[in-house]
Design brief:
The protein is α+β, with helices and mostly antiparallel strands. The protein is built from four helices and nine strands. Strand 7 and strand 8 form a beta hairpin. Helix 1 packs antiparallel against helix 3.
Amino acid sequence: MGKIKPYPPVKYFAAITFTAGNNLVDLYGALENLFSAIDNESEIFDFDQFTSYYQSEMGKSLQKQIISFKTLLPAEQLPALKIATNSIEENFLSNGKRTINVDPGYLTAARMVLATTKDYDHRIYLGMGIFGDLHYRFRSGHFRFNEWTYPDYQQENILHYFEELRILYMEQLKTWNAHSLQNEES
């Protein structure tokens, strides 16, 4: 029988799709209140080149950015955090339509998982109406995407961003491990 061990905390991030010209300062503040201080940001990129999925609601000229948060948190908080980010989106409605879409997820040494409300065969139900979507697996020193990984996450610069984020996470995890060991010895 395998020994049950506590799971280390994970590195949370939020993928933000937004209408051009949207001021993200208030959104960043709301997300920092939910997660913790922002510690890393990807470049902003043109999202329309990858999909038209959100255009009927949000319009054209959509942009996207990924931000991560300093404090490592338990993986099992993902469903509650997805529900909370859905509520944050409602604060940015214009004429009843979203101007911002926030998709939280987390990163570990081995994987990157996005939260979603949509069920498909490759997604795992996490509870509270939320599913976990495995987008990357870490193999041979790099993140590898899956056949279902969204096209924008297949970009070389976004893969590189998440690999850099993994390096940051691994450094943070060393501190967490040292702290956990110290607490066990006390």
